[in-house]
Amino acid sequence: MVVQLASCDVFGIEGRVVQIEVDLLSGAAAFVVSGHAGKGIRESRDRVRSAIVNCGFYYPFDRRVVVNLAPATWEKDGSAFDLAIALGILIDSDQVPGAARRGWGVLGELSLNGSIRPISGVLALLAALRGIGIRSAVIPCDNLVEGSAVDGIESIGARNLREAVAVLSGDSPGVSLPAEAALADSSRAGAGVSSEVAAPPRGKAAPHPDLGEVVGHGPVKRALAIAVAGGHNVLLAGAPGAGKSFLARRMPGLLPPLSRDEVLEVTSIHSAAGIDVNGLISQRPFRAPHHTVSWAGLVGGGAIPRPGEITLAHRGVLFLDELPEFPRRSLEALREPLEDGRITIARARATLTFPAAFLLVAAMNPCPCGNYRHPRRVCHCPPERVRKYLEKISGPLIDRIDMRIEILSQPGRLLLDSRGPRSGSSGELRELVLRAQRFREAEGRPEPNRTLGWRDRERWAPLSDGARRLFLRSTEEFDISTRALTRILRLARTIADAAEAAIIEEEHLLEAIEYHSPRGGAGSLALLGSL
Known about the structure:
By secondary structure, the chain is α/β, with parallel strands linked by helices. The chain is built from 23 helices and 20 strands.
């Protein structure tokens, strides 16, 4: 008889169901895999054969083992089919009751001694199996925390091939983890914020660097907290050593916790990308690729597109240090995700859309040497070289950045005064973020303010009389695009949320204009505004 078992592979960041068909035929001994199988699957014959023998089962060396991966219309690769192929051989050779396999999904890579290794993308794979009516699945024990978080399908962990056989035969319940243990409500200060989840411990996580370690820069710290509260993109500009990277790399301590759905979404993306998540990701991602990263590494790509850094930063922060040093092509590719929160990659073999709703934090020097318009240092860059350096950042890209902050070097006496007050810690500023989030959700705006649309501005951006006069005067004095006007109002809305104000007042709008307009800055920001 032909044995069929349901399994799955990863396509982009989604799962695709594959039916594993196994048949033992008389004839010359062979192990044949059909169905557009990649190299990783063709090599499974050695892993499967050794695992079966080393676990004390009989391998039919005198038979022709034929394995088909249906449907055969797309190419499949990876090692997640090992366990299903091995179980199919054992069922077809009457070593496992065939009826026990009905309604089960099977996922796992086999080692030569029969132990089951973890695989990538378990959340996406189980969701795909659930979509075709599968209600139970055998998965590696190391993926059990991740798999148990998927509703509607029971995940049973197995450590080796013998345990998987016992589970399918009904001789053992296997290892299971209640969904409540994988997704448990966690408490935190402040009510009225969307529910969160606490992932099972993955070892003691290192604490985030604290913004309180940064001497001075009080207004900049507040600006970063406002950016996090509303999901606003930020450009930090200043001379080398002024503290741009030092400040940006302390932003994770300001990020609000992930909601329950966001935990599953972020974990699914990272797991499908082949990153060892070892459980559930409970903290927002902070990605900081080097400026030498390739276009495909940043945006995503490949023959069958895989997610890049912008997708791995989904629901978190993407930090691009030395922004003008990134290739122009890579920076221009950021336009779509910054506007739409997703990226579409088209290739000859596939076209995929990945989520990419991230907060962009960029840092740059004012010129190649870093001393352009510095009050004390001499810039050795010719004007044309400075202009060429800054022109790598196009106007449309700058227009998508809500906040442009000039970072000035702090006086040396502040750095040496260890007894001076240290204000603006991550804990204090995080309270501002959470306060703004609570007020926003109480006002019926669950999504970050960066997603607010101009069409509904009368509802979310009511202006006081003073703010309306300031807004009209600003539009007359400066040539500001419609996109920029929308972003200024969104930014003012976040500042008002932090003050728990329903109406945008003049001081809120003024602060937003100061954050957004490069004309109010010095050095590189002033020049960027004139390009």
